[in-house]
């Protein structure tokens, strides 16, 4: 019996985290970003800029310290917050992702290419100055796919695994990667640790994202599996390629091509076998991201019920049934 107790405690903890994470997912979906000024993620970014000013050196060792400090701040904030529901709500950004994609799609659909180019950097790091409407559409669809992992699935995964500290530590890691994890002269060495840490933190969530896309689009499940298996390894990121391949196959599109970053051209292998993305496909991509969040919330609810049947009333009903069966006949 004593051997079972640690497992039972772990199971109950996972059940609590699953229920709380599902709550955070739904809160973000229906309430949007927390009405806090400054936003916690923006405040963290300002803090890490100050850390960078203090620590910066063109060495990987300095970047390791930067990544360690930022992760500790995120985990420490989670210990202070304590509530996995609140931490998940802060860390997850389903609504913000959809809003950012829509802001680019709207002028693009109206033919205002200059405005779409102006808004695109909120979603992607590539140079938008020479992109036509098809390339902008591809950039947004690829960003929505990648950020379905970064902004939805991964923070939920780490909230499930580590509660509030896990959720906010992940958000800190992902934010640091966005800030310093670039192949530029300044950050090639200093940002190395943040980029590798982000790769590690997203490895499992990216594959979970592909599974959730299959659940959200079951009629395309076989095509999604083939794209992830065959096409994703050609992407330079071990994680972004998985999510982008899954979205490409689910939407019957072909992603990949030439991307320009600070004057440097990166040629990405093709993902999927469909047609090139059109501006109207941005709405389809955001719907898929939203559907993934709904499926994820449902899966978490099931995990919560299975892991903690007593809280759901299942165990209580079983006990009542057993009592009735053992009672002597009158």
Strand content: under 5%
Strand order within the widest beta sheet: 1-2
Largest sheet geometry:
2 strands, antiparallel
Rounded mean pLDDT score: 91
Q: DSSP helix count?
A: 14
Q: Helix fraction? A: over 70%
Structure explained in plain terms:
By secondary structure, the protein is mostly helical. The protein has one domain (10-307). The chain is built from 14 helices and two strands; from the N terminus they run αααααααααααββααα. The protein has helices at 4-31, 40-55, 60-81, 84-91, 94-109, 113-119, 133-180, 187-190, 192-216, 221-230, 240-250, 281-307, 309-312, 314-326, and strands at residues 258-261, 264-267. The chain has a two-stranded antiparallel sheet with strand order 1-2. The protein is globular, with a radius of gyration of 22 Å.
What are the key terms here?
two-stranded antiparallel ribbon, 2% strand
Describe the secondary-structure layout:
Layout: H1 4-31, H2 40-55, H3 60-81, H4 84-91, H5 94-109, H6 113-119, H7 133-180, H8 187-190, H9 192-216, H10 221-230, H11 240-250, E1 258-261, E2 264-267, H12 281-307, H13 309-312, H14 314-326
Antiparallel strand pairs: 1-2
Summarize the structure.
The chain has helices at 4-31, 40-55, 60-81, 84-91, 94-109, 113-119, 133-180, 187-190, 192-216, 221-230, 240-250, 281-307, 309-312, 314-326, and strands at 258-261, 264-267. By secondary structure, it is mostly helical.
């Amino acid at each position: 019996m004593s051997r079972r107790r640690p497992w039972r405690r772990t199971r109950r903890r996972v059940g609590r985290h699953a229920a709380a994470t599902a709550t955070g997912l739904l809160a973000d979906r229906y309430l949007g970003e927390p009405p806090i000024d400054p936003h916690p993620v923006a405040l963290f970014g300002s803090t890490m800029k100050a850390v960078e000013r203090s620590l910066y050196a063109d060495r990987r060792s300095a970047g390791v310290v930067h990544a360690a400090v930022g992760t500790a701040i995120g985990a420490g904030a989670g210990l202070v917050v304590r509530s996995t529901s609140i931490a998940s709500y802060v860390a997850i950004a389903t609504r913000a992702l959809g809003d950012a994609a829509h802001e680019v799609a709207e002028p693009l659909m109206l033919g205002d290419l200059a405005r779409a180019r102006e808004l695109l950097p909120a979603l992607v790091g590539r140079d938008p100055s020479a992109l036509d409407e098809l390339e902008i559409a591809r950039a947004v669809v690829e960003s929505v796919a990648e950020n379905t992992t970064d902004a939805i699935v991964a923070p939920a995964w780490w909230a499930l695994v580590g509660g509030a500290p896990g959720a906010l530590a992940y958000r800190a890691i992902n934010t640091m990667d966005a800030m310093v994890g670039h192949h530029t002269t300044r950050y090639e060495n200093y940002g190395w640790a943040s980029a590798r840490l982000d790769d590690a933190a997203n490895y499992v969530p990216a594959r979970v994202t592909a599974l959730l896309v299959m659940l959200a689009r079951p009629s395309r499940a076989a095509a999604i599996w083939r794209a992830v298996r065959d096409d994703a390894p050609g992407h330079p990121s071990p994680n972004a390629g998985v999510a982008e391949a899954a979205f490409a196959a689910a939407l019957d599109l072909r992603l990949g091509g030439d991307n320009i970053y600070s004057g440097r051209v990166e040629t990405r292998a093709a993902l999927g076998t469909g047609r090139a993305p059109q501006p109207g496909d941005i709405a389809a991509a955001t719907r898929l991201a939203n559907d993934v969040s709904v499926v994820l919330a449902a899966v978490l609810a099931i995990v919560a019920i299975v892991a903690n049947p007593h809280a759901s009333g299942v165990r209580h009903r079983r006990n009542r049934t057993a009592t009735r069966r053992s009672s002597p006949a009158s």
